[in-house]
Amino acid sequence: MKGDLKPKLFAWVPSNLSFSSYEKWFSYPFVGIAVLGPLLFALSFTMMDVPPTEDIPWTTELPGNGGESEENAGVHWFKMEVEVTEGLLGTAECTSNTYEDEYGNKKTTYRFRDRPIEESDFKLKSVGHSTFVQSAEFSAVWDQGGYAQFSQPGLCTSDSVGKIWDIGEGYEGEVLAYEDSEGRVLLKATTYGQSEFPQFLIRETVQRIGAFLIATSLAIWAGMIPTELSRMIERETGGRGKPHNFIKMEERDENSYRAYSKMLKKELVLLAKERGLDDSGLKKELIQRLVTHEEKMGTEEQINLWEDSGTKREIPAWNYPYKKIDVWDSRNRYGPDLDEGELMQEHPVVLGSHRPPILTNYSLAAFASIITWTWLSSDLIARHHGTLSYGIGIFIRYATLVIVSMWMIWSIRKWFVYHLVIDTPTQTIQSIAVGDAELCGQIRPGVKGTISADIGPWRLDGLIAYSWTQEVWVEHQDSKGRTRGSWQRVDGDKKFVDSFILHDGSAGIKVNGKEWFDKEVGVQPKLSEGDSFFANKGKVALTGACLLLGGLLVIFVAQFVENKGSLPKLYLGVMIWSGMLLILSAIMMSTYYLIRFTHYVREPAINIFRKLRNPFLLIDYGTHMKRENNATRWELNCIGGGDPLYIIGKVSPRTSKDLEREGLSGAQQTELLEVGPREALETSIMQRGTELQLMRWARSTAETAIIPILALISSIIPFIWM
């Protein structure tokens, strides 16, 4: 796969939508809401847009022969006190309902069941105005789907259950109606005794549900759209990486150890003779330290270590065929491989540098989702809102702002890393020089070989660095005698080699492991049983919840008062910022305790925040290995021999003593050099994988910086506008 150096303006990248048996539970609902949302939104425009009833004027005369209005062209809305002079508006029936309360007592309620007679024509005349103005009769009909509220004569009691009242001639009340462009008067509602008219929110409700589904489906769709490079890799490699067996993970078995050991030594001796190497060359310095150990135990199925028949890594880091051990030159570790120094297939010099397209459907979907959320929140706040819809609108507005801000910050951080990779040209190790450098190659053991890790019942060989933890499930009785349980860390270890070799096929170079791994995060110590958090976790949770709800309440009140226009802008701003500060405090407190105490996070809080600053800062192991056995579980981060490795660091000369310890003459340029991190750690990267693996999730500057900034501006505008 040769990368395109000229980025395309736009690329349509297929999403990861799948209708397989394993994923159809998610895909079918997503397709459903993606189709239903636009349909509901389009359907809403076929419904009449009824203005807020408090904005409709009272009148004593008909508006007159239709006319124009802002809400509906050719329609005049009005409220009027009327008297029925002919026909029936509707009927009212007194009904009862008997039920049992929480104490088992029987109770009965009585209410009117009202029904407008939509098929009936009736005549009305206006009342309640000066006698000097003559009341004219006019014909009216019910609007289809109209809703009526009747305050009926008499009381609905046990004596009147089943009684039906006809609301007709002589009835006086108020009507909410409109006159269409043809001069017809259509009633929407009636009341009696100056009671409030209902709000007609069918159009708004359907429209808002449609907008909600559209925004949700767009957000989900954006999350399912990979990068163009990721799709290209999946298409060329079949969606699977290249597994390798340089790192062996085996369950220790005392009964098979002796047989395994004998057969393994036989394999090693035969291979050494075939290659013309003595025991001190291949067997002691390379093979035994890479794939075996003095106390190694395993099964006969894992004896052939030179083929892909061993235990595989859970997440392979190779996308293309890798350098197998039979082409390594163990007598000249820093020289070219036995295949005439051919570069590994996944080297950036071979593949080229891929430039992501400026825009894809990912950025369009994400930006459209943010715009839809912003519009929905503004609509809920500004139009036809009750207390509930107003609160939902406020929540969506602030939630959108927070999410977009996090998206922008995270995207810019990734942009920093990706452009650090793009702007730093990759060199072959054979032609490397002193100074800052970008290298990509395969990990191979140095003079001190590799290390092993014993984790519970397993042993892993061929490692150059690892960090693992062990947790057990502990149950205890709380103050109320209830059995509670939690995972507690009881053991862990961290270890690395002082040095190893990075080889790209053309040559090898020493990597100073101590300078890299000594700066990495260690294993978190065991938490004491008397930790104050666990003793007062209820108080901590309650405090965070109070801060969060208090902030939301303050902001809600501020927005409500602002809507009424009875608070100075200065006080309003203080209230809003106070509420946001309370919410931020709750989030920070929750994040702190989450980072420090939950079993999902293994590192101290300060190192988590450091890694958030640069998602690929210093070292990324590429994968986690997790194992669980009844009430015990283990987690391992590791890098081992044969793994691909990408480095942005600093090349510096080795000391003469260091060369003497390895018995090197300095005949090759790469023998005299070593790679360590830069002085500024924020610009140093060591990642399990190649540049291709790192850049497969890279997006353009427009998608990682410009689009999120525009989305943030669009989410801020309602705060300024409204």
Describe this structure in words.
The longest helix has 37 residues, at 387-423. The strands form five sheets. Strands 10, 13, 14, 15, 19 and 20 form a six-stranded antiparallel beta sheet that branches. A five-stranded mixed β-barrel has the order 2-5-6-9-8. Strand 13 and strand 14 form a beta hairpin. It has 16 helices and 23 strands. Helix content is 36%, strand content 23%. Helix 1 (24-44) runs antiparallel to helix 2 (202-224), helix 8 crosses helix 11 (537-564) and helix 11 packs antiparallel against helix 12. Among the domains are: 53-198, no CATH class; 248-310, no CATH class; 525-595. Residues 66-71, 243-250, 252-264, 289-315, 521-535 and 597-616 have low confidence and may be disordered. It has 722 residues and is an alpha+beta fold. The protein has helices at 24-44, 202-224, 228-237, 257-275, 279-291, 348-351, 361-382, 387-423, 513-517, 532-535, 537-564, 569-597, 605-613, 656-662, 691-695, 701-721; strands spanning 10-11, 76-86, 90-100, 106-116, 122-126, 137-142, 164-167, 172-179, 185-191, 248-251, 359-360, 435-445, 451-455, 458-477, 483-496, 499-503, 508-512, 618-620, 625-629, 632-640, 644-653, 673-676, 685-688. It is elongated, with a radius of gyration of 37 Å.
Strand content: 15-25%
Q: What fraction, in percent, of the residue positions are helical?
A: 25-40%
How large is the count of helical segments? 16
Question: What characteristic shape results from the CA principal axes?
Answer: elongated
Are there runs of 5+ residues with pLDDT below 50, and where?
A: 66-71, 243-250, 252-264, 289-315, 521-535, 597-616
Radius of gyration: 37 Å
Largest sheet: 6 strands, antiparallel
Q: Tell me the total number of β-strands.
A: 23
Structural class by sheet pairing and helices: alpha+beta
The mean pLDDT is 75
Q: How many angstroms does the end-to-end distance come to?
A: 52 Å
